[in-house]
Amino acid sequence: QGVLLTGLGTFAMVQERFHGEEEVYVVRRPVFQLDWDTLCLQEFTFPSVVIPGNIKIKPLNYRQLSRVTSFPQYVVEDCVQETILLYSLQLRDGQCLPFVFKAIGVLCCKDDVLCMRFYPSCITGLESKAGRIALLHT
């Protein structure tokens, strides 16, 4: 399953097969696909990530976030959208600040390359059996 953050991109979990010396591993790992049409950031390069078509993408569940944070849903929606807009504007102005996603990773920019760096705990949390292989390929 994947989650769409409108105006920024999509987080998803993909499964990939990797051949070891003696066996084939099926590894789950997180990916992030930027929404470049919305961001309009032509001066940046980024790793190309393709989320397979069989993965169900759902919009961010603002109702659930509202319950968890105890803020009204409209406040949560406005906060998320304003944060994404502010980050986009900072990137356009050349301010390459890290965008931290708690327990997931950091969207960062270095030398005009914008990419998502997932925390090792996020990757190994998805894949207990072949966590090291998932880490190496993320």
From TrEMBL:
What GO cellular component entries does it have? microtubule organizing center
Report the Pfam families cross-referenced here: HU-CCDC81_euk_2 (PF18289)
Q: Where is the CCDC81 HU domain?
A: 57-129
Name listed for the protein in its UniProt record: CCD81 protein
Report the source organism: Eolophus roseicapilla (Galah cockatoo)
